[in-house]
Amino acid sequence: MKHHRLLLFMVLALFSCKDKKKEDTPKSGKPVITIIDQSTPAVSEYLCDALFGNVLKVATGDTLRFTFYFQASNPLSQYKIDVHNNFDCHSHGKSVDWSVLKIEDLSGTEVTVEEALIIPENASAGNYHLMIRLLDIYGYEAEVKEFNVIVHNPEDEEAPQVTLTAPVEHSTYQHWDVVHFHGTITDNLSLESSRFELKFTDSNDHTYHLYEIFYPQGTTTSYTIDTAYTVGPFIAPGEGYFTIKAYDKANNFSLKTVPVIIE
Q: In Å, how far from its chain's centre is CA 20?
């Protein structure tokens, strides 16, 4: 049923008019979404190197409550609530990523709707997108209401720490050279069931996702980094930097950057 409703929501703009009598003429104007009440007030926060004023901060196990007022010149058709992770600024966290995809039918030109979105106790910490959409029967869409939801786990809010002994900062490499990475990742709790990522950002500010390495079964509070990367010919010459992004099971993370020069 969910797949059927999703398909209907996506293609309604193309096909809804076919079901109407020829004398039916859509009225001008898009539907409007008004948020009458919300349980968590929005705050401003820096996310993905930009300041957002639509941030909701919640803990695992909390409930986000909204009261929406939907209205339109034409009869309403459907509303959709979509929650998905935005960990890499568009997981593998404590257990599962929180996601919601809900589509409900509507009738009439105005309606008040109450929604309660429960954040699972085992949801991964991190940044999520929350989007509310609204359509009328002719496929006209309201301006999307969007929030960034920061989920944290009260039982584990300490991020892992990354210590590197190699490579050395500001080292010089050429294409096809091998860069060796040695160091440790430590945390207050077991790292098992999580991972770290290795990226490189070149002098043109292009980021390459090189590796995603999962901590093996049996890993405790410390993991030894021992990996290597061969500098590809596609890497632009100049000053760039490697980034190791280490996660724990609650999806808390920290970054370690190493600037280098590619000749």
A: 39
